[in-house]
Design goal:
With about 160 residues, this protein is an alpha+beta fold. The protein is built from 2 helices and 9 strands.
Length: about 160
C-alpha cells in the first residue's frame, strides 16, 4: 500500500514538472474615456484607455463604442486602434469624432457651468492574443468626466 502511494506521488510530481511553464490566461479587456477635448470645429478628440487584464500580450483591432451622457446618446466611436498591449497593462489611443447634436449640447452646458458629467461607454472591442484569433468583447463602463482647470474644453 505504501509503495502504491509512493508511485502515485511520483507520477503526480512528474506531471507537475512537465507543466509547460506559466499558464496563459486571456481575460476580458476594459475600456474607458481618459480624456475628452472639444476642438474649435466642434468635433471631439477622445483619448480611450484600453486595459489588458490577460497574462499574455493582446492586440486590439477594433472598437465600436457608444458614448452616452446621463443616459442620453452623445456620440458613436468607431476606431481601429491596431495596438498591442502587454500582459496586465494598459495603453491609450486617440480618435476624433463628430458628436451627436444632443451630446454636443450636453457637453457645452456642462463646460459652461464648470460641472462634470456622468458617462456610459458601451459596445464592443475586438482583441486577441498576438499569435491567436481575435474575438469580440462586450464593453460596459459607467464613470464620470470633470473639467480640467486651466485647460479650456478639456475633461478627464
Amino acid at each position: 500500500m505504501k509503495l502504491r502511494h509512493l508511485l502515485i506521488a511520483a507520477a503526480v510530481l512528474a506531471l507537475v514538472a512537465c507543466g509547460g511553464g506559466p499558464v496563459k490566461r486571456v481575460s476580458e479587456p476594459a475600456a474607458g474615456i481618459q480624456q475628452l477635448s472639444v476642438r474649435a470645429d466642434g468635433r471631439w478628440d477622445v483619448v480611450v484607455r484600453l486595459d489588458n487584464f490577460s497574462s499574455v500580450p493582446m492586440r486590439f483591432a477594433d472598437a465600436n463604442l457608444d458614448i452616452a451622457f446621463d443616459n442620453g446618446a452623445a456620440a458613436k466611436l468607431q476606431a481601429q486602434p491596431g495596438i498591442s498591449i502587454g500582459p496586465e497593462s494598459a495603453d491609450v489611443f486617440t480618435v476624433t469624432l463628430t458628436p451627436l447634436p444632443a451630446g454636443r449640447a450636453r457637453l457645452a452646458n456642462a463646460l459652461a457651468d464648470g460641472q462634470g458629467l456622468n458617462y456610459t461607454l458601451g459596445g464592443t472591442v475586438e482583441a486577441g492574443p498576438e499569435e491567436g484569433k481575435p474575438r469580440s468583447y462586450k464593453i460596459e463602463r459607467k464613470s464620470a468626466l470633470a473639467p480640467v482647470p486651466g485647460l479650456q474644453g478639456v475633461l478627464r
